[in-house]
Amino acid sequence: MTEQVAAIVITYRRPERLVETIHSLIGQTRRPDEIVIVDNASDGAAEAAIAEAGLQRSVRVLPQAENLGFEGGLSAGIQYTRTEIDPDWYLLLDDDSPIDPASLEQGLAALHDLPPRSVLANRGADLPKGRVRPVYGHTLSAPRPVAVCLFDGTLYPRSAIEAVGLPRADFFLMFGDYEFALRLRRAAFGLFVGPSVRSAAGYSGFGSSPPWRGYYQTRNQVRTAIEMRSGVLLFGAIDRVLRQVTSLALHRDDRFALRIRLRLLGVWHAVRGQMGRVLDPEDSRYR
Asked: Could you tell me the fold of the domain covering 5-193?
């Protein structure tokens, strides 16, 4: 029996890039059996762009009443797909992540050569002493194990979702893939980064970000360490905050005070367990 693959794409007000990503999925040498678009309250722009491109029969669109964030969108998309399709594999993508034409075919082939209960990503990280060291699939000739797989561009087996549940919707944005990867490792899944699922858009890296991202990254990382009762993770979270604050102090911009304040607020909310969408990314005060 042929394995079923569902591609889940999370979109938020980037209709042109979304259409590119859908075209890349339709053009795969091994096309996904289902393409599910979770539209995070794009005010109809995503559905209009899909219709204008003539793609409405190729995808299922799940419009959301509010912006759930990437993690919340994934949780909604996977939950829907499990109920309606129950695929053997999930390919998770952001809306600006078109992939090379043979990505899915090569990714599935690579997974069948890996041990059972494996996950394959095109980006991930090692966590030496709790610190984040990025690993990029396009730099590798073969899959290698990592501590963390990023959601975007990763193939997950159905057994992974059955074992550890859904991504943390209450994280809203940032660090959800790290937390999910840690759950998978505790459930004895192997996490790998390899060259198979390649983005045609290139790699932007782990660079600078707007102030609101610092809040969510800090809050969710510290909260993960607290909930998992991990001293190593907590040390890594505190170390990362201190290094980022030092970097901000050395390269001050006009939002320096805001960046520091939001990171400290993230720590406070993590300790209190205040989760969900606290800061609106569209609010100009936090951009």
From this structure: Spore Coat Polysaccharide Biosynthesis Protein SpsA; Chain A (3.90.550)
